[in-house]
Design brief:
Number of helices: 3
Helix content: over 70%
Order of helices and strands: HHH
CATH topology: Methane Monooxygenase Hydroxylase, Chain G, domain 1
Distance between the termini: 62 Å
CATH superfamily: Ribosomal protein S20
């Protein structure tokens, strides 16, 4: 237990921020999974629509330091590559 009021406040803030970050990371995983599943099933249009949403959320998470900006870039790149791969196999 904290001995000072400021330390107690910091603990409360940390608890709230941790919950928000956990929720944001969970949403990112869900959106990435939607893109990968659609691309794997050959549904290119659906994958591209989901990618647009996922890319925006990844950039927002990176700007708020939920994830590192390079991690966001890497994830977007991998999702885009999966879509390109799905397009090639569909052709």
């Amino acid at each position: 237990m904290p001995n000072k009021k400021a330390a107690a406040k910091h603990m409360r803030q940390t608890r709230v921020r941790s919950q928000q970050n956990r929720s944001a990371r969970s949403e990112l995983r869900t959106l990435s999974r939607k893109v990968m599943n659609a691309a794997g099933a050959g549904k290119v249009e659906e994958a591209e629509a989901n990618f647009k949403v996922a890319a925006k959320r990844l950039d927002q998470a990176a700007s708020k330091n939920v994830i590192h900006k390079n991690a966001a870039s890497r994830k977007k790149s991998r999702l885009a590559h999966a879509i390109v791969k799905a397009k090639k196999s569909a052709s």
